Structure to design on (313 residues):
């Protein structure tokens, strides 16, 4: 996979990769929404994960000659597949059957806030600064505005179930992020992602076939196959490669900006393509929410720098 060889070198390539990540991952929410309108969400998720994972794994095993994961690596990959792709990706995709695209994407963007809360409650490893508190309050207020606008004005059927799915997905991503930070395994990140996708596809297959009325592969429409191909090639391959590339070339604070852009891209694209409601209240609520997420991330970064810079007493 030499996609990154075609990018400009240095920071210019990093910024281009960041733009690709932000735009593609923002539009995958809309693509998923189109797909789940025709076939069960978990079925579409396992087809997507299987195809994307197979591409990564086959490339690295056959072309790069990487060895099969060790037992320890496989256990770690199994846990990450469950948290990041079965629960996080699977449930967020399922939520699109019940709630607007932008709201699901916005809830997904809240994971930095939940990471801070989880670490403070269970690991006692975060000190609540004034900036962190303001960020948390802004995040909660902003999502409340968007929630109110959607919940009490032409609320779709199954709205609260969709909210529950989206929140569970976000929390699972948060837990997975904490585990990755605290228990790193030495393995190529692209290769690891491929295995996580592949493993999760079989888990999702079992869950989908036992909990939802799935459709035959032959009856899936051309439109849905186009959606799946886009999700695999653009969402699972191109965007993820671009994301990791941007992390290598840009400061963490810059490469993480995709998290603030994705929901806005999803909201605007859904309004244009799917005719989803996008009022000023929803837009302002989204901006307030993302401002809160930014402040929380910024406060964490400042705390880390202070610990590094301050001399021992």
């Amino acid at each position: 996979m030499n996609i990154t060889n075609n990018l400009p070198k240095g920071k210019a390539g990093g910024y281009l990769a960041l733009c690709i990540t932000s735009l593609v991952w923002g539009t995958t929410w809309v693509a998923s929404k189109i797909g789940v309108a025709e076939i069960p969400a978990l079925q579409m998720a396992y087809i997507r994960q299987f195809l994307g994972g197979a591409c990564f794994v086959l490339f690295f095993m056959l072309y790069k000659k990487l060895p099969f994961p060790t037992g320890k690596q496989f256990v770690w990959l199994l846990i990450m597949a469950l948290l990041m792709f079965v629960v996080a990706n699977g449930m967020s995709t399922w939520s699109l059957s019940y709630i607007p695209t932008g709201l699901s994407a916005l809830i997904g963007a809240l994971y930095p806030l939940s990471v801070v809360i989880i670490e403070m409650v269970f690991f006692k490893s975060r000190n609540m600064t004034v900036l962190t508190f303001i960020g948390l309050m802004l995040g909660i207020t902003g999502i409340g505005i968007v929630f109110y606008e959607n919940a009490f004005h032409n609320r779709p059927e199954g709205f609260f179930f969709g909210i529950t799915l989206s929140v569970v997905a976000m929390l699972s991503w948060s837990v997975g992020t904490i585990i990755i930070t605290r228990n790193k395994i030495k393995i190529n990140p692209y290769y690891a992602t491929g295995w996580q996708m592949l493993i999760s596809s079989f888990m999702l297959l079992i869950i989908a076939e036992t909990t939802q009325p799935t459709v035959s592969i032959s009856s899936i429409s051309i439109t849905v196959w186009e959606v799946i191909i886009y999700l695999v090639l653009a969402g699972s391959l191109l965007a993820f490669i671009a994301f990791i590339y941007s992390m290598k070339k840009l400061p963490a604070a810059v490469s993480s900006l995709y998290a603030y852009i994705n929901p806005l891209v999803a909201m605007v694209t859904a309004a244009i393509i799917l005719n989803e409601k996008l009022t000023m209240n929803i837009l302002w609520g989204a901006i307030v929410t993302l401002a809160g997420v930014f402040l929380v991330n910024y406060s964490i970064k400042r705390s880390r720098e202070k610990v590094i810079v301050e001399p021992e007493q």
